Every structure is written in C-alpha cells, then in structure tokens.
C-alpha cells in the first residue's frame, strides 16, 4: 500500500515557483530518501506536502486519502508528521512539555505516558534533561527532541528534514541509527538529506532533487553507481562524504 | 502619612484593574503577535454593556458583568474570524489598520448611542465602604480590585496549569511548532482573541461603578494597556501584572506631588523614561532572550 503519493506537485514560495511537477511515492514501511543540494527545494517539498506553502497537485494523498484542501494540522493528525529542518521547538518550555505537546495529534491522552517512557528509552539524554528548557539544549539534543516530539503521536509516517544539519559526525551517526530503528519498528520514513552518504546507507530507494525537479530516482545501490550521482551535484555538494562505488 | 496610605491603597486596587486589562492585550500579543489597538475599546464595550443592562442590586450587577464579558468575547471572536484572519495571512500592516479602525468605529458607535459623557451606575454592592487605620476604600473600588486579582490568578492558572494553557503557550513559543504537533492554531487564535477581549470587557464592567464612562475613554485605556504590556517586558504574564499595579500606584501617588491632569502627564513621562532606559521592559523572562527569532509565519491561519 502506498503511504504517500505525490503526482505533479508544484510549490510556490511567494511569487516564484520553487518545485515543478514533482512525482514521488513512499510505500508503507519503506525508508526513502530525498537528496539534493542546498536550495534544490527539499524543504519546500515538505512544506508543500504538509500544506504550509501554496501548492498545486494532480494527486497528493496519504494512506489512500487525498490531502488536498486538508489543513496542515489535520494532515499531522492523520499521522503525517514532519521533523522540521529548524526544529521549531517550544524554546521557553521544558523538554517534557515539548514532548507532551507532541502527543496532541494522537488525541488519546492515556497512552502519552507509555510513549514518553519509550522516547526516554530511545533518547536517555532527553530523560536527563526533562526539566531543562528546550532553548538551552545543544544542537544534537535539539535534534533528538524534535524527533522525540514527532514520535509522541505514534505517526504513520515521519519526514525528517536534514536531521544531521549542523551536527558533529558522531552525533549524526547516532541520529541516523535512531532513524533506522524507528523505521524498523514500523514507521514509514522519508529522509531528506544533503548528506548523501549517510542517507543512502539508510534508505532503500532515493529521489534526487535538482532545481525543483526530480532529476533521478531508483534503488539506492543502483543510484549510487549512476552517472547522475557521479557527475551532478555530488562532487560539489556532498558534505558528509562522497559516494564511492 | 495616612494620605499616602490612602493613595497607595487606591492606586494598588486601580492597578489591579490595569493588570487585568493588560493581560488581555498581553495574551493576544504574545500568542498571535497582534497588537490590538482596539483593546481599550473592548473595555468600553464592557462598561456600556453593563450600563445599558441597568442592573439594580448586587447579583444583577454581577450577571450584567458576565453578560458584558461574554459579549466582548463574542465580538472579539467575530473580529478575529471575520476581519483579522484574512489580514494575518497576508501579513504587513493590515492588522494595525484593522484594529485601529475597529477602535474608532466602536468609539463613534457609542457616541451615537450614548451622546452624554460621564455616565455611571450607583454602587451595586451591599455595603458602602471599608475603613481601617485611617484608610477608606469604597466598596466598588475594593471589589473591582479584588475581583481583578482573582481573575488574573484564574488566567495564570489557565495559562500555566491546564492543557489548553499549554497549547496556548505552545502557539506563542512557535507557531510552526504548534502546527507540527497538530494544534489547530486557527482555533487557538480565535479563542485567544476572544479571551483577551473578554478580559478587557470584564474589567470595564468592574470599572463602571468607579469611573464614569465616555466614548473617548477607549483611547486612554488602550494606551494604558500598552504601557502595562511594554513595561511588563511583553515576555511574561507576571511582568504585565506587576506593571499594571505599578501604573496604578504611580498615577495615585503622582497626584500627591502634582495637581490632577499634570500628575497624569507626569506618570506618562515617567513611563516614557523607563522605556528609553530599559526598552526591553522591567521584567524579562530568561527564555525569551535565548529564544531564536521566530521566522516569518509560513502558514495563513485564515
Ligand atoms: N523564505 C523564502 N522565500 C523565498 N524563497 C525562498 C525562501 N526560502 C527558500 N527560498 C528559495 O526556494 C528554493 C528552495 O529552497 P528550499 O526548499 O529551502 O531548499 P532546500 O531545502 O533543498 O535547501 C531556493 O531557491 C531558495 O532560494
Ligand atoms: Mg532545506
């Protein structure tokens, strides 16, 4: 079954169109990555899918139901949760308050404590800092908190927008391992990254975004060898390591 | 000495009303980033609301205050829903123009409905005044101050201790974050604006037996509410409450040293000075400094 189906998606930022006729499919249980250099339109794609930016699309559906005309927060309530690039945490509130707000989309209040315990188990660091204000966390901790907050509603699908951005290599590895675990436990994942090396190691399929259009797609092992990845932006933009064959 | 005590008590009680008016403006500002220039006119709605209900006696008066508060909240809800939502989505200065024009419209409406200035109602409370150690406080003033304090505490309980309060604070911390956790921010905005306007109207109802109402009072009250929020640091509910009390005290004690209207001018001069020296306000919440600048609102809540 397809979890997310995008066909002919066009996204505007202000007057300019930053995404043109994008097709993208993520099936249930998959871990798919979307790579592209800075400014390619990755974040715009996510914000379009969530309804934060004005879009046009032939199809935009989640679990077989159209998202067109559905308000962003209702898309979240349907189980489509984004861990945003700039984290969008509640800076003046504690780690635990942030996490508890994450459970809002689930509607059911009784399971919140159980899920909270799970998240503290996944990120022991967050448990240690439960009473600390989110605005005082380090970059890695903020990334963890954003992921934890996203998990609180037990989403069907998590979209990660550059979870490794600005983090030290060791922290990146740990975050990536956590994303793999989340996917193994049954959450469908769309991983958006500039860090091709890390993303390809995790995902089974990939899409390459260039200047607002999909320039290539396929299984990660095939794509890694492709001409597109060898020439293209990889040489210039691969920050976390060049894909080797 | 007893004069000072008398003025300080009156100032404190008056200040609590300013606190109540101020937190209404504070909530709308901190959650929605909207400066409601019509805020003082919602106090007018409360005052004229109670006036036109002509309550005779204590319980009818309380009932009238509740009705006026609900009326103010309803008008606020409709203003948000019908006027501001579309303007908010577009950004720019539309909310300034909308709330400013709204305030003027309310003023002219009351000028037509109530052409004579300085209308009031007789003391609705079952007692006249309290006297203790040389200080005499009239019943309406005492009651208005105490009830304002109770309402301020109730609002702080709502904001800091309840689920809906956590949601409201979440929206004020990060609009996008709120959307990402599935909060219907449009509904929260409507409720917050209604709450802010309702609080202003309640304050108006309580104020009426103390202060005769004229249509021109709206502007003065808007400015006072502004002063309270700005001096309070705009980052904390308690700062706003403290600033309200401070304004009340400054007004009352100012009259010790200068006659009537000049005292008022003196008070505003003083606050002007405070803003020059400490533009961030007197009370600044620690977290508001480390909070990264909120990026522009990406979603139209309209
Ligand atoms: N706030 C904005 N207003 C207008 N254009 C923007 C804004 N943010 C990004 N853009 C433009 O939109 C395009 C896509 O940006 P974005 O989606 O952030 O790319 P990515 O996430 O892949 O780095 C870029 O050309 C960028 O310059
Ligand atoms: Mg991006």
Automatic annotation (TrEMBL), chain A:
Entry keyword Hydrolase: no
Highest taxon in the source lineage: Bacteria
GO biological process, one term: L-amino acid transport
Molecular-function GO terms, alphabetical: ATP binding; ATP hydrolysis activity; branched-chain amino acid transmembrane transporter activity
A family per Pfam: ABC_tran
Keywords: Amino-acid transport, ATP-binding, Nucleotide-binding, Transport
The UniProt record lists the keyword tRNA processing: no
CDD domains per record: ABC_TM1139_LivF_branched
Record domain ABC transporter: where: 4-236
SUPFAM superfamilies tied to this protein: P-loop containing nucleoside triphosphate hydrolases
Alphabetical list of InterPro entries matching this protein: AAA+_ATPase, ABC_transporter-like_ATP-bd, ABC_transporter-like_CS, BCAA_Transport_ATP-bd_LivF, P-loop_NTPase
Coiled coil: none
Similarity comment: family membership: Belongs to the ABC transporter superfamily.
Protein name (Swiss-Prot/TrEMBL): ABC transporter ATP-binding protein
Organism the protein comes from: Umezawaea endophytica
Automatic annotation (TrEMBL), chain B:
Alphabetically ordered keywords of this record: Amino-acid transport, Cell membrane, Membrane, Transmembrane, Transmembrane helix, Transport
Stored InterPro entries: ABC_transp_permease (IPR001851), BCAA_transport_permease (IPR052157)
Listed GO biological process terms: amino acid transport
Compartment(s) where it occurs, according to its Swiss-Prot or TrEMBL record: Cell membrane
PANTHER family in alphabetical order: AMINO ACID ABC TRANSPORTER PERMEASE PROTEIN, BRANCHED-CHAIN AMINO ACID TRANSPORT SYSTEM PERMEASE PROTEIN LIVH
Superkingdom assignment: Bacteria
Record's protein name: Branched-chain amino acid ABC transporter permease
Annotated Pfam families: BPD_transp_2
Family: Belongs to the binding-protein-dependent transport system permease family. LivHM subfamily.
GO cellular component entries: plasma membrane
Lineage: Bacteria, Bacillati, Actinomycetota, Actinomycetes, Pseudonocardiales
Molecular function as annotated in GO: transmembrane transporter activity
Record keyword Glycoprotein present: no
């Amino acid at each position: 079954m397809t979890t997310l189906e995008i066909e002919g998606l066009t996204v505007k930022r202000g007057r300019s169109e930053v995404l043109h006729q994008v097709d993208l499919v993520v099936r249930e249980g998959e871990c798919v990555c979307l790579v592209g250099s800075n400014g390619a339109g990755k974040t715009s794609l996510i914000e379009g899918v969530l309804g934060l930016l004005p879009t046009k699309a032939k199809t935009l559906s989640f679990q077989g139901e159209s998202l067109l005309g559905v308000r962003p927060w209702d898309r979240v309530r349907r189980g489509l949760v984004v861990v945003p690039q700039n984290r969008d945490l509640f800076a003046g509130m504690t780690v635990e308050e942030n996490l508890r707000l994450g459970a809002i989309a689930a509607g059911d209040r009784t399971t919140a404590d159980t899920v909270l315990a799970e998240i503290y188990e996944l990120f022991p660091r967050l448990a240690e800092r439960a009473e600390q204000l989110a605005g005082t966390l380090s970059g890695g901790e903020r990334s963890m908190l954003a992921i934890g907050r996203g998990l609180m509603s037990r989403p069907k699908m998590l979209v990660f927008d550059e979870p490794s951005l600005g983090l030290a290599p060791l922290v990146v590895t740990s975050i990536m391992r956590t994303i793999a675990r989340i996917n193994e436990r049954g959450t469908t994942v769309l991983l958006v990254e500039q860090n091709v090396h890390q993303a390809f190691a995790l995902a089974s399929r990939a899409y390459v975004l260039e200047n607002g259009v999909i320039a290539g797609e396929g299984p990660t092992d095939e794509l890694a060898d492709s001409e597109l990845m060898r020439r293209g932006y990889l040489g210039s933009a691969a920050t976390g390591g060049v894909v080797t064959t | 000495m007893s004069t000072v005590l008398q003025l300080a008590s009156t100032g404190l009680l008056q200040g609590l009303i300013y606190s109540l008016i101020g937190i209404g403006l504070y909530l709308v500002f901190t959650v929605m980033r909207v400066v409601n220039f019509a805020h003082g006119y919602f106090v007018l709605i409360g005052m004229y609301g109670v006036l036109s209900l002509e309550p005779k006696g204590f319980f009818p008066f309380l009932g009238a205050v509740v009705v006026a508060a609900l009326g103010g909240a309803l008008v606020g809800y409709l203003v948000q829903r019908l006027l501001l939502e579309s303007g908010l989505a577009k950004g720019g200065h539309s909310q300034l123009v909308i709330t400013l024009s709204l305030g003027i419209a309310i003023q002219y409406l009351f000028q037509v409905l109530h052409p004579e200035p300085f209308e009031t109602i007789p003391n609705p409370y079952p007692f006249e005044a309290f006297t203790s150690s040389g200080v005499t406080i009239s019943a309406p003033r005492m009651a208005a101050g105490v009830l304002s304090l109770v309402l301020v505490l109730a609002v702080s309980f709502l904001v800091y201790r309840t689920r809906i309060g956590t949601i409201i604070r979440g929206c004020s911390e990060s609009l996008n974050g709120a959307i990402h956790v599935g909060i219907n921010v449009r509904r929260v905005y409507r409720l917050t604006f209604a709450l802010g306007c309702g609080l202003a109207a309640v304050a108006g109802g309580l104020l009426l037996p103390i202060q005769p109402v004229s249509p021109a009072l709206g502007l003065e009250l808007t400015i006072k509410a502004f002063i309270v929020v700005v001096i309070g640091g705009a980052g904390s509910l308690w700062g706003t409450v403290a600033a309200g009390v401070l304004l009340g005290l400054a007004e009352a004690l100012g009259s010790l040293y200068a006659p009537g209207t000049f005292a008022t001018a003196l008070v505003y001069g003083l606050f002007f000075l405070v803003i020059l020296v400490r533009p961030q306000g007197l009370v600044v919440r620690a977290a508001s400094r480390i909070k990264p600048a909120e990026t522009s609102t990406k979603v139209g809540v309209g």
